[in-house]
Amino acid sequence: MSELRKDPIIGRWVIVSVERAKRPSDFVVSVDWKEEKLCPFCPGHESERDDTELFIIKDFKKQNGWITRVVEDKYPILNFHGDIERIGEGMYDKMDNFGAHEIIIENSSHDKTLATMSIEEIYHVFWTYKQRFLALKDDKRFRHVIIVCNHGYGAGGQLKHPHSQLFATPIVPKSIMEEIEGTKEYYNYKERCIFCDIVREERRLKERLIINNSSMIAIAPFASRVPFETWILPVEHISSFENISEEGTMELAKVVKETFMRMEKILGDCPYNLFLHSSPFNKYLASEYHWHVEIMPRLTKLAGFEWGTGFYINPTPPEMAAEQLRTVAVNLYGG
């Protein structure tokens, strides 16, 4: 029978539709990239775009080579230049469209993915994330930073070249606030981190556990919103991603690569969204929070019921998804 499952962090309800249960072969979804005449992120095109470069890890094996680059988005949805002016119009609130919108070009190779990059290359991606978190944290106008990766046209991606986007905002996004409020409520009741309890429970039960090592785990969350939704969490309680160590970044890179290798083996190169959630900055820090990565494969579409009610309908139970991902054979160091 179908089940209603409640997300323990924010209280969101999900319908796990067992009667409609689908295995990986039931989903036929490709990334479906748009054709590109000229990739603006490939090496050699830097001067043509005249990007404002914010950060770079150079590849000294190649002349003018680089491993990752961070540039300002040429068409930002948030405007970095200016200041915050909060305005009230009667009962309505608004402010200037202030924030940071950056592009992290994850690799110099046009065709690589998180499944095909080396562990070292993925390490550089997440180390770059950390450096941008630290740089923006020093700007007291910002309260929060989130990383978003849209892979595939069906997930909102426009360019095939591996890249992600960083958004820094003067307000804490509603989805993050809901998580923070949930973690604080849980902590006030039990004096424990809810994410730490999730880590312990999933390691104990093992039925939704995909990858388990001493510092990171990957799980199919109990109230998964979409088929094969996956979370990666540090075992140690760390509220802010920018506090990750070099060793922790390398362990994260290993788990990220293995997760995407397993997904690609099961689902192919499907569209997905990746989010890196971290605590707000400075005086807005939520020490009860626990940074984590969420991966949302785009295998189904929301319809009227979902939009009208806020419920998600998931036709693949997370236990089934976790078993498929956990048992598929991959060679992490085999390329």
TrEMBL record:
UniProt keyword annotation of Oxidoreductase present: no
Residues holding Zn(2+): C39, C42, H110, H161
Report the PANTHER family cross-referenced here: ADP-GLUCOSE PHOSPHORYLASE (PTHR42763), UDP-GLUCOSE--HEXOSE-1-PHOSPHATE URIDYLYLTRANSFERASE (PTHR42763:SF1)
Highest taxon of source: Bacteria
Q: Name one GO biological process term.
A: galactose metabolic process
Ranges annotated as spanning the membrane: none
Does the record carry Nucleotidyltransferase as a key word? yes
Which organism encodes this protein?
Candidatus Desantisbacteria bacterium CG2_30_40_21
Family annotation (SUPFAM superfamilies): HIT-like
Q: Which cofactor does it need?
A: Zn(2+)
Residue ranges of the Galactose-1-phosphate uridyl transferase N-terminal domain? 3-173
Cofactor: how and how many bound: Binds 1 zinc ion per subunit.
Domain named Galactose-1-phosphate uridyl transferase C-terminal: which ranges? 182-301
Catalytic site positions: H163
- What family does the database annotate? Belongs to the galactose-1-phosphate uridylyltransferase type 1 family.
Keyword field:
Carbohydrate metabolism, Metal-binding, Nucleotidyltransferase, Transferase, Zinc
What molecular function does GO assign, one term? zinc ion binding
Name of the protein described by the UniProt record: Galactose-1-phosphate uridylyltransferase
